[in-house]
């Protein structure tokens, strides 16, 4: 037997064994992923892990305060300061450009 023949035989055997191992590993993974987890199991797994503890607490008061702050009337003093002191100075030409009625211009462009 020559060296090339031996290498080819080893290659075929290894290829066959790897194919079998990969196929069995894939079927095992598929079986594990297809098994649905119940809500109770998911909640118990979450309870057992410590990741959720870093989230803190959030209740309806926090939600109302956050929503009020987004609307500009809330408990976020930094946001109120930004709204009351705009970074851009008032400019009459800009104000006129932003408040102008552009309906006639749009009609002319459509024609």
Strand content: under 5%
Terminal Cα span: 88 Å
Mean pLDDT: 79
- Extended strand count: 0
What structural category arises from helix and sheet content?
mainly alpha
The total count of helices amounts to 6
Question: What form results from the Cα inertia axes?
Answer: elongated
Q: What is the alpha-carbon Rg in Å?
A: 34 Å
Describe the model.
With 111 residues, the chain is mostly helical. It has a domain at 1-34. Helix content is 69%, strand content 0%. The radius of gyration is 34 Å and the shape is elongated. The N and C termini lie far apart (88 Å).
List the helices and strands and how they pair.
Elements: H1 3-34, H2 39-48, H3 60-70, H4 77-84, H5 92-99, H6 103-110
What brief labels describe this structure?
mainly alpha; 111 residues
Summarize this, please?
This protein has 111 residues and is mainly α.
């Amino acid at each position: 037997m020559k060296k090339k023949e031996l290498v080819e035989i080893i290659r075929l055997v290894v290829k066959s064994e790897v194919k079998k191992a990969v196929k069995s590993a894939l079927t095992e993974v598929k079986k594990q992923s297809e098994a649905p987890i119940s809500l109770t199991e998911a909640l118990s797994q979450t309870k057992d892990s410590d990741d959720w503890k870093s989230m803190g607490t959030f209740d309806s008061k926090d939600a109302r305060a956050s929503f009020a702050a987004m609307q500009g009337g809330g408990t976020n003093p930094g946001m109120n300061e930004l709204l009351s002191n705009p970074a851009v100075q008032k400019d009459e030409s800009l104000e006129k450009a932003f408040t102008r009625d552009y309906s006639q211009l749009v009609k002319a462009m459509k024609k």
